[in-house]
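#lab-general

N.A. 3:47 PM
ok so I finally got the sequence cleaned up, no stray characters, all 214 residues accounted for. can someone with queue access submit it? mine expired

B.Y. 3:52 PM
send it over

N.A. 3:53 PM
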Amino acid sequence: MTRGTWKRRIAMTAVATAAATALAVPVGAQAATAGGASTATATASAAAAEAVDYATWQQDCRTLMDQALPALKQRIAAAKPGEKQAIVFDIDNTTLESDFGFSYPAPANKPVLEVAKYAQEHGVSLFFVTARPGIISGVTDYNLKTVGYKVSGLYVRGFLDLFKDVAAYKTAQRVTIESKGYTIIANIGNSATDLSGGHAETTYKLPDYNGQLS
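B.Y. 4:20 PM
back already:
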């Protein structure tokens, strides 16, 4: 994570923490079942850029989601009788535009929201697994719902989770989702820690430009 990214993330956390004092929003927590992992990755045209250009980032996100949606439509249509399908999403710079401007609620990442809306309109449950601390779970849940995501479960890090490897923590949450009877048909994030560890049929990695948006 770059120095600039840290500054943006600290500012975002400060805004969310302040909002938490004014909002009391319940956080859901349910789950999903799974499989192996096939990975689709977008070719980032600004992968080595010093600063990430918003328009380039949006185009790269669009490219990947345009690849993902036809496959997801096919998988959703092929649901077995009684199968509970789920998609797991990261939050920062995946479902929300965390590093582009400071506002609350943070805007949705539109290409990802479009995929999420198709899925939720066709009976797929959406779960969000984030490295964000539990102190801002309420405002995070509110933010996601306000911009159009139907949240079936939000997983944030408790105090003890802060000392664990992020990839291992996120894998454990997907295992929990599976244990509740869901099939995780896709796992979408912008960092390797979002996607490693299996417990999803497919993975889709959004651009992070060598960690600038991780």
